[in-house]
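Possible regression after last week's pipeline update?

I re-ran a chain I had predicted before the update to compare outputs. Posting the input and the new output here so someone can diff against the archived version. Not blocking, just want to make sure nothing changed silently.
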Amino acid sequence: MMTLKGPSFELSHNPDKLVFLLHGYGDSGENFIPLAQSLYDSECNINFYAPNAPAPVPQYPSGKQWFELYPNGINFNDAGPKEKKLLKQDCVSSLKLIRNYIINLCLKYNLTLHDCFIIGFSQGAMMSFEFGKFVNEHLAGCILLSGRILPSENHDKKNFNKTPILIIHGDQDEVLVPKYFFEACDILKNHNFSFESHLIKNEGHTISKEILNLSKEFIKKNMT
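New output (post-update):
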């Protein structure tokens, strides 16, 4: 099995927490890791990692994807049974790689998944929530930026449901429209997650200074 690789922002030889940044569709860990400098707080002993998704995107030579947005050439929102099967296979394959990547770093620093924050943007946000469900562990925190929660019949994961969640979306997002924000909030509420939500006015499909500040405060608040 292949292993994920990507840049890091490591300031500690003995960190208390690890933060994993999952980039969006067509992006890369190299483009995403600079966020670590904005999220870093000198009071928090943490290291940051931004793995590259495993699959290339044909129209973006340097871009990567966690799962195929157009299985069999069909938008995943319109997927039929065959396409949904392919989508699930893609997701599970990436989730296994993410788990191995994170577990290896936990072993390196003698930490557990409870010491890990996972932050995703857009497609990376979808994978961040799916990762929590996949491992079904109480993580330090999960931050969903401009994303959505993928359709599922089973969001009731007793250990993952203890994980603090931060969900942020722009009210002018045209890539993943705000209805996905409200849909995700309903799912979190209905499954008894402890979550903080922000719909940012006049914000599109991007990561602004305000979003970074909210994320930074969330990490700092959940360092214990």
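Follow-up from reviewer: compared with the archived run. DSSP finds six helices and nine strands in the chain. Marking as no regression found.
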